[in-house]
């Protein structure tokens, strides 16, 4: 019973899709193939689009610069951390040796 209902819904959906497609095919055939609609954009809109594209491009370069700077900073911090760890290890080792000598 459930399969019959599902089959009926499927066929109704396919028929609805075919109906919409049949009605829209003539309109789709009249559209140009390259996507151009034939209207010329206003000059201010063209300038605004170019400015937004350039802003996005500059933003990308700023992100790359920031990423490189942060990566270099991370390496410097890791080197400093390693040096501090080595110094602390040496201090602890000397402290342990002093404790052994006192005992």
Give a quick rundown of the structure.
It contains 2 helices and no strands. It is elongated. The chain is 86% helix and 0% strand.
What report would you give on this structure?
The protein folds into two domains: 1-31; 59-103. It is 86% helix and 0% strand. With 103 residues, it is mainly α. The relative contact order is 0.03. It is built from two helices and no strands. The chain is elongated, with a radius of gyration of 35 Å.
Count every beta strand, where a strand is a DSSP E run of 2 or more residues: 0
Helix/strand order = HH
User: What share of residues are in beta strands?
Assistant: under 5%
Query: Total number of helical segments?
Result: 2
Helix content: over 70%
Radius of gyration: 35 Å
Q: How much is the average pLDDT?
A: 88
Number of domains: 2
End-to-end Cα distance = 90 Å
| Low-confidence parts | none
**What characterizes the major β-sheet?**
none
Features:
single chain, 2 domains, 2 helices, 86% helix
Secondary structure layout plus pairing:
Blueprint: H1 2-30, H2 43-102
């Amino acid at each position: 019973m459930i399969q019959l209902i599902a089959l009926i819904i499927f066929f109704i959906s396919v028929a609805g899709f075919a109906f919409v497609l049949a009605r829209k095919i003539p309109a789709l055939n009249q559209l140009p193939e390259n996507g151009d609609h034939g209207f010329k954009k206003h000059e201010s809109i063209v300038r605004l689009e170019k400015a937004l594209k350039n802003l996005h491009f500059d933003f990308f370069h700023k992100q790359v610069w920031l990423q490189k700077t942060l990566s270099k900073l991370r390496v410097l911090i890791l080197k400093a951390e390693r040096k501090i760890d080595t110094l602390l290890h040496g201090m602890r080792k000397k402290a342990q040796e002093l404790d052994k000598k006192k005992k």
